[in-house]
């Protein structure tokens, strides 16, 4: 096991890199969990304190609308130590080129081949005005520690 904050710096990367590009005033907060499998094969999430290569990590990004109108976008660069797996929302778009282009993973190509989850460098979600008007929400995505 490796210490969560020291070896991977995931905590700092997730917390500081989640940004809202705002036509509306938005605050974000994130929490990182690691999935553990118990001897009876049940699964549970616990706060990520130590991680090892192969651990499945779930990041929950919470957003809070502080004012303004319309929708907004939340963008999260993935640390190099994390391979994207999937998002809990079908509203996400991903980038495989450092945030220059965006789309659904199945529609992206990189270096002449179809992009795969391990190619993802950034994840973003477009929060529509109707959902944003509720004032708060959560988005989650999973990855595997490299």
Could you describe the 3D structure shown?
Keywords: Signal. With about 150 residues, this protein is mostly beta strands. The chain has one domain: Immunoglobulin-like (Sandwich), CATH 2.60.40. Helix content is about 10%, strand content about 50%. It contains three helices and 13 strands. It has helices at about 5-10, 10-15, 130, and strands spanning about 1-5, 20, 25-35, 45, 50, 55-70, 70-75, 80-85, 90-95, 110, 115, 120-125, 135-145. The chain has a five-stranded antiparallel β-sheet, covered by helices on one side. Strand 10 (about 110) and strand 11 form a beta hairpin.
Question: Can you count the helices?
Answer: 3
Write the CATH fold name: Immunoglobulin-like
CATH architecture: Sandwich
Strand order of the largest sheet: 4-3-6-13-8
State the major sheet: 5 strands, antiparallel
Distance separating the two termini: 13 Å
Rg calculated over all Cα atoms? 16 Å
Stretches with pLDDT under 50, minimum 5 residues: 1-22
Query: What is the CATH C level class, in words?
Result: Mainly Beta
Provide the domain count: 1
Following the backbone from N to C, one meets helices and strands in this order, namely EHHEEEEEEEEEEEHE
Signal peptide: 1-20
Keywords: Signal
